[in-house]
Amino acid sequence: MRILTGIQPSGKLHWGNYFGAMKSMFDLQEKGENFMFIANFHAMTTVRDGKALRDATKEVALDYLACGLDPNKTVMYRQSDVPEVQELAWYLSCLTPMGLLERCHSYKDKMAHGFEATHGLFAYPVLMAADILIMNADLVPVGKDQKQHLEVTRDLCQKFNNAYGEIFKMPDAYIPETVATIPGTDGQKMSKSYHNTIELFDVSAKKKVMGIQTDSTPMEEPKEPEGNSVYELYKLFATKEETEAMAAAFRAGGYGYGTAKKELLNAYHRLFDPFKARRDELVKDPDALEDILQEGAKKARAAAAPTMEKVRKAVGL
Ligand code: ADP
Ligand code: TRP
Asked: What confidence category does residue 20 fall into, taking pLDDT thresholds of 50, 70 and 90?
């Protein structure tokens, strides 16, 4: 089974990214042939600063390696190091109905948030389909927000195969229902667009955790933990026993949010301090990082080559 996922280097990764996307990828690492790429072409739809894009691309690679990506088990590459995806995106574009893209929520959402209506943003799902189909992926782990893009991919797979013969494998989305929406410091979904994130290696983690919005129930009163951001975040880091102990303390009363926040911060450090130590080592050797990315690109291009050969022949080139 081939498993593929991509992540945009459009900002620093945060707790929502870790628990919503990275962790399930690491868990799948043992289960198949894994590919993970940094979608720098996709990030260009919103990032217009070359240096920022280049730096963010490396940061994402470092974060993944620090938190558990094993380059011996997962092929990690930069999207731009496999330029054939652009070529395939064009072939797919030529059979993509405009209406299919016009219906995409993420495009409409970006428009509603005041982004400029560019062709890149509009055609984004076609490039994503190319990423997936070129690698003949069976399974694509993504967040709920990407479900529709996977449907577009499946649609384009079918259209291409109908027109040119059975070339692409039909991919399935892998959206673990158990992965909740991780709340941010203001209680809404944690997202860089909402400025409510706590980054993976946030120097102001303490300040942000202590600043998580809570209600004003007095300390001594019992509180319902479910739905409370501090508790919901603690659940992600803590063991089952620790989680139950916090829930019981909240329900019993006499347990305040300040104490709970300190526990959350400790649990965060327990998990992330070893990752931070690994990251500090990785940062010292930029050549080694580049080698991993180059090696990944070589493997990814080799995996894409037989499909692209069939595709070019089928479309008449
Ligand atoms: P952001 O919302 O900060 O821009 P992205 O859309 O780049 O984050 O998300 C990248 C991946 O991380 C996606 O698979 C997405 O589903 C997951 N993810 C991001 N934020 C959260 C969250 N708050 N809860 C769960 N998963 C999340
Ligand atoms: N659109 C995805 C996101 O924003 C990133 C992405 C691009 C992707 N190409 C992909 C994810 C291919 C999975 C497979 O999260």
From this structure: confident
Residue located nearest, by CA, to atom 10 of ligand 1:
17
The pTM for the full model equals 0.94
Pocket of ligand 1 contains residue 57 by CB under 6 Å? no
Lowest mean pLDDT among 23-32, 34-43, 63-72, 286-295: 23-32
Cβ 207 vs Cβ 218: under 8 Å: no
- The residue whose C-alpha atom lies closest to atom 11 belonging to ligand 2 is 6
Residues serving a catalytic function are 110, 189, 192
Please tell me the distance between residue 132's alpha carbon and the centre of ligand 1 in angstroms: 19
* pLDDT score, position 164: 98
List ligand 2's pocket residues with C-beta within 6 A: 4-8, 39, 42, 128, 131-132, 140, 142, 146, 149
Amino acid in position 187: G
Q: Per-residue pLDDT averaged across 121-131, rounded? A: 98
Residue 178 pLDDT more than 80?
no
- Pairwise CA distance, residues 130 & 156, whole Å: 9
